[in-house]
DNA sequence: CGCAGATTTGATGATTCTCAAGCATGGTGG
DNA sequence: CCACCATGCTTGAGAATCATCAAATCTGCG
């Protein structure tokens, strides 16, 4: 398995500036979001100039590593990226899972180094943005600046989502609901989806033992909240799941 | 006790544009930080124009409330501010404590409303910055923009500091060390300081029961790690405390 | 002085972790 | 094609950390 760092050296093949790139990149949710913020066509062109399409990365590939010098942020275009730290004793701490349309690396600006690892959980495609260049561009494009502010602001809130002291059931329900909603935002089905990460990763993220995750999911299944086959999830009773998650998500 | 929202209506008395304001505001750590980032004198003047000095606020006063429309960020100049949410059942969740030199409100950009309450824990002085105006200014002053990016980026990291699944002792040690370091950054003593928040607030922040906080602190005192009289803390063995906190803080 | 709120302390209990073993699953090579 | 292995997942039993409940103590303040 290739576990090298591929992020700082984007594959030249996927950077080809062929005629399809503009259309191709219009599927990049990050650009889309900027567009939605009122950026005009020429502004979008400026963005395209500094986008690098990276990938495909495969499960286990690192997007960046903790301690690497910070150079760029990236928008996930396809697949799932896990961010995590490793403490001095080698124990991993999962910080988050990042779905298509979400941006990673924003927590590296302060410190000039990535404070965590970013690892592909499946086949991942990225849009890479040199940060100095996008920041420079943002001084000319207020909408872009505003969008960057918004993205970072949201990450602050997301990071404290699971900060509370809730039960294992509540955290798991919140995890499933949150995952479902984020998928729905990008046009995926909110009822049927695949958990691309291992039980161990979920457990770590939710501050639980993997055994607890397994037991909670089984109980959810027994109470007809969800149906689970391997990593495939079908949500059967969204209202009740949302009710359980309410204490964590607050809406 | 006055528990009204004072933030959106700064006290006119402290906004007086007398000759001392420039010197006065030079004690505002936010401006200082921007200065340190290489802003020249005229840039600083631009900042001063849009600063509003707010305060003094007293213990229990709200700086802003969850749900209030987002208009401004604020730098703490003196005192301590607690940010917290309240869930549908009325249970509070403490998100953080903010010391002089730290900025609050950055998590409100996304959503256009404050996602949490901000409450003064003691006598608090603030610098208030209209966000639309400071964002506008940031397009002209790349150093200011960069500073805002940095502040938000740091908040992402801070929010996930206590995300890990650590023991009560480790979290408390990390809390004390982190508090001490942040005070030291601003020139306060890192060995002797006052915990301006209640045990209940600390407990909530660390996901513990107040009783657990009490017991952990007593054990710390018995092992000569710290000396505690009410809310006054003296750290007696910083190396050992830092060692305990290592798993949480990672440095 | 006495009251209200905060903190401490002790006893008990429950959620969750740990340890250990069994069971699927998916890929590999014979 | 099937046995085999590695990995991840599940399940059960026992243990431990930490929360809860109850009550005493302390503190600041009117």
Automatic annotation (TrEMBL), chains A, B:
The identity of this protein, by name, is: CRP-like protein Clp
Which GO terms fall under molecular function for this chain's record?
A: catalytic activity; DNA binding; DNA-binding transcription factor activity
- Tell me the ranges covered by the HTH crp-type domain, including all copies: 166-239
Could you tell me which residue ranges the Cyclic nucleotide-binding domain spans? 35-109
User: Which organism is this protein's natural source?
Assistant: Marilutibacter alkalisoli
Protein's UniProt keywords contain Transcription regulation: yes
- Record keywords: Activator, Allosteric enzyme, c-di-GMP, DNA-binding, Repressor, Transcription, Transcription regulation, Virulence
The compartments listed are: Cytoplasm
Q: Superkingdom of the source?
A: Bacteria
């Amino acid at each position: 398995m290739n576990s090298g760092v591929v992020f700082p050296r984007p594959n030249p093949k996927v950077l080809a500036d062929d005629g399809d790139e503009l259309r191709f990149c219009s599927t990049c949710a990050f650009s889309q979001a900027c567009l939605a913020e009122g950026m005009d066509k020429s502004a979008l062109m400026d963005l395209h100039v500094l986008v690098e399409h990276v990938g495909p990365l495969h499960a286990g590939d690192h997007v960046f590593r903790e301690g690497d010098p910070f150079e760029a942020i990236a928008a996930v275009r396809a697949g799932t990226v896990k961010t995590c730290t490793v403490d001095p004793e080698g124990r991993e701490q999962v910080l988050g899972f990042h779905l298509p349309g979400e941006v990673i690396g924003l927590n590296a600006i302060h410190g000039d180094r990535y404070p965590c690892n970013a690892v592909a959980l499946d086949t991942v495609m990225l849009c890479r943005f040199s940060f100095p260049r996008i920041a420079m561009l943002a001084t000319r494009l207020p909408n872009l600046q505003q969008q960057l502010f918004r993205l970072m602001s949201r990450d602050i809130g997301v990071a404290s989502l699971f900060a509370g002291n809730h039960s294992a059931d509540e955290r798991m329900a919140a995890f499933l609901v949150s995952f479902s909603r984020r998928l729905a935002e990008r046009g995926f089905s909110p009822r049927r989806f695949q958990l691309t990460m291992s039980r161990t990763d979920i457990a770590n993220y939710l501050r639980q033992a993997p055994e607890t995750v397994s037991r909670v999911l089984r109980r959810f299944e027994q109470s007809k909240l969800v149906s689970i086959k391997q990593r495939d999830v079908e949500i059967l009773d969204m209202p009740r799941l949302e009710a359980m998650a309410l204490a964590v998500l607050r809406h």
